[in-house]
Amino acid sequence: MLNRMLAETLRSSPKSILLLGPRQVGKSTLLKSLKPDLKINLSLESEYMQFLSQAERLPSLILGQNPKSVFIDEIQRIPSLLNTIQAIIDDFSNPPKFYLSGSSARKLKRGNANLLPGRIFIYHLSGLCNTELQDRIDPYRAMSLGLLPEPYLSENQKFAEKLLRDYSATYLVEEIQSEALTRDLQGFSRFLKVLSAMSGSILDYTKISNKSNVSRTSVIRFMEILEDTLIAERIYCYPHTTAEIVKHPKLFFFDTGVLNGLLGNFGISEDRVGNLFEHLVYALLKNSMYANDIQGQLYFFRTRNGLEVDFLLEIGDKLYAIEVKADSVFESDTKSLLAFQKYCPNLEKCFIVSPKESLQRKIGSIIICGISELVKEIEGL
């Protein structure tokens, strides 16, 4: 079994844990590897119905078995159970440590869930990160199949593609329909197809509305569903400059393989490689921040007159600029970063990252590197 970076952090935590992440990223596998004494799987209908109808079931199980640790999978299915967990933590003389997992922050929010402030630490898990792959990421494989553990590590390309094609159907049926996040499943399905084709671009809500034949209000609501279920994220233009910037955000899916599964296209053709590599850089930055529990914020930068930087990563009071290029890097490729430095003269570091670059080098003050080298720099911050 692949060792996940968060494992030791969760094991040694003095507090109980809520681990959030999309489906199939390995939350259950990770928490089971911590060998909890009591396991409760709310994705199983039989267990779900028992705990839904018997509010006293969890305290009675703990009193009867006296476990040191309890794992509850898919806690978002019964948000009210968090109130019971708080009572156990507060009132029992020797309460167990809880490991909770969830794939829908939306269900927790809409269920007015008590997220146990002061009693629980919240972590995120996404796809594989650079360190988990021992600094040996295959960028072209990851552009095609993404970084979910099972597809990326599979030796069978067709099997991996099948998994990822089925992901969108599973997501629609299990996450959207069964959780009643929207009644308009057909409209949401059309929206998802249109949005996946526009992923990585500046969002035009009116255009998405027209192409998917759903209202603009529904587009915004559907976008919130994607974000709350951790499937996609809007990132915004960096606001702390004097430049006239664009106001609309970009959207990125959390995994290139899932994006390709939605599109039904796992090829890395010349017309797709730039967008796919940008998605991969986004995914690896997020995966590594989650795995190392780094609190950071991703932005992009674009002015109204066309100056653009692909990503800005803000960690504390430090800002890092990252330009993404799917081909070899030349001195002329540094122009955008050099121009951006005029707006942010206190930049900590500037990078241009490319799958064609295997050794780190510099052009002036700008670091040119491959994707593993970029992420190692970020992980060392």
Assembly state of the chains shown: single chain
Radius of gyration: 22 Å
| Tally of helical runs | 16
Distance between the termini: 28 Å
**Major sheet description:** 8 strands, mixed
The sequence of SSEs as H and E is HEHEHHEHEHEHHHHHHEEHHEEEHEEEH
Contiguous runs where pLDDT drops below 50 for at least 5 residues:
none
Number of separate strands: 13
- The helix-and-strand class reads alpha/beta
Percent range for β-strand residues:
15-25%
**Into how many domains do the coordinates divide?**
2
Report on this model:
With 381 residues, this protein is of the alpha/beta class. It has two domains: 6-124, P-loop containing nucleotide triphosphate hydrolases (Rossmann fold, 3-Layer(aba) Sandwich); 139-379, no CATH class. It contains 16 helices and 13 strands. The chain has helices spanning 6-12, 27-32, 45-53, 57-65, 81-91, 105-110, 139-145, 149-153, 157-177, 185-198, 205-212, 216-228, 256-263, 273-291, 335-340, 371-379; strands spanning 16-20, 38-41, 69-73, 97-102, 120-124, 232-237, 250-253, 297-302, 308-315, 318-324, 349-353, 361-363, 366-369. The strands form two sheets. An eight-stranded mixed beta sheet has the order 7-6-8-9-10-11-13-12, with helices on both faces. Strands 2-3-4-1-5 form a five-stranded parallel beta sheet. β12 and β13 form a beta hairpin. The longest helix is centred in the middle third of the chain and has 21 residues, at 157-177. The radius of gyration is 22 Å and the shape is globular. The mean pLDDT is 90.
